[in-house]
């Protein structure tokens, strides 16, 4: 068991700690405050009196930076407010000087104001009570980006730089680019404690990279969102030259023939020099900067023209040979176009004609139930047999009803009727000298006649089996015709 004295000491220590916590809670402050350089910052501090026996005699703000403490503001009811730090009388002041509210205002805020601030209340009979506030200063940087002019080359060089100056804490810089480049970073701490960060973007400079856009992106705690700064690269390269305007149709007495010296470069070419391999230009030629104008073509311009373009990076030349004809060249484009048009038109006409022929053919095809007829089998080509009409007797015979008769009696009646009709037919043929024969012999006789009796059988879109159409529109049975 422990000694009774040690137990009492522990209990007293715990009570003192609890009392100090309760007393410390009388001073109301913010534990952390963030201020922006050049702006105003407020450090709240209030004393909460719990009993009327506690008396406050003085309020003091103490700053601690780098292990050093210094009074920055004091308020006494009789002597009023005071600010011991030199040069801070105008930047630091109490908001409402009193023994209950010791809120401190600092403006404009400097980076040197960063540190730990303690608000102390001198009380009776409890002694000093305080609250601690940590002040952090942020400095918003100034961000810029620009291209660096470099000449075309084969080694990697910085072509752009992005700078975030006087920031706290240091800014973060990245690049957004479609080019194959590399970034390098450097930073410098300034005398006021801010930091300047610089990032260089490097690549192998080519004329294709000239005019390309890359973007510098800066991120910082003082920015609500990253800041994007576009940069257009400037790669210096000598002119790229070509001569335009020659149409291979310069002929004698032609007027206003023109050549143009087309040149691009960085910087843009500013000087153009025209010449020929033999030296000076023909007298019929007029130079207008990058243009060469021939008012009237003659044999003197039957030569090679040279254009030299110059910028501060270099000089580049281009040549154009000119051939002067006696007569204008015949243009084949019109005849060729006409020939092509004729061929295409002919093809289209054949296609249309073929479509019309196919359409007419299908429109005039016999219907499915009107195919060719085979007299021997007495069946159409589609496998159907037409009704057999032998002569006028069958056409004119009325439909005979057999009321009250059974099916068998009706069939016998039909057979008797057919025999009577056959006899009547033979009797009608006798006066004309035709021999009497059976219907089967008549059909065989008709088949031997061949196509003579089948002339015009399809004029109306159908064929007859036992009858043929005459020219006068009458119908004659094939059983009544012999040769």
- Strand order, main sheet: write it out: 2-11-10-5-6-7
What's the CATH H-level homologous superfamily of the largest domain? Immunoglobulins
Distance between the termini: 159 Å
Q: Determine the structural class based on helices, strands and strand pairing.
A: alpha+beta
What general form does the structure show? Answer: flat
CATH architecture label name of the largest domain: Sandwich
Count of distinct structural domains: 4
Instruction: State the CATH topology of the largest domain.
Output: Immunoglobulin-like
Over all CA atoms, what is the radius of gyration? 60 Å
The low-pLDDT segments are 1-24, 388-407, 449-483
Number of helices in the DSSP assignment:
5
Question: What percent of residues adopt helix (DSSP H or I)?
Answer: 10-25%
Subcellular location: Membrane
Protein name: Nectin-2 isoform X3
Keywords: Disulfide bond, Membrane, Signal, Transmembrane, Transmembrane helix
Pfam families: C2-set_2 (PF08205), Ig_3 (PF13927), V-set (PF07686)
In short:
Its main location: membrane. With 483 residues, this protein is α+β, with helices and mostly antiparallel strands.
Tell me what the structure shows:
- With 483 residues, the protein is an alpha+beta fold.
- It folds into four domains: 10-138, Immunoglobulin-like; 142-233, Sandwich (Immunoglobulin-like); 242-325, Immunoglobulin-like; 373-480, no CATH class.
- Helix content is 19%, strand content 38%.
- The chain contains five helices and 32 strands.
- A six-stranded mixed sheet has the order 2-11-10-5-6-7, with no helix packed on it.
- It starts with a helix and ends in a 6-residue tail after the last strand.
- The relative contact order is 0.06.
- It is found in: Membrane.
- Keywords: Disulfide bond, Membrane, Signal, Transmembrane, Transmembrane helix.
- Residues 38-138, 141-232, 238-323 form the Ig-like domain.
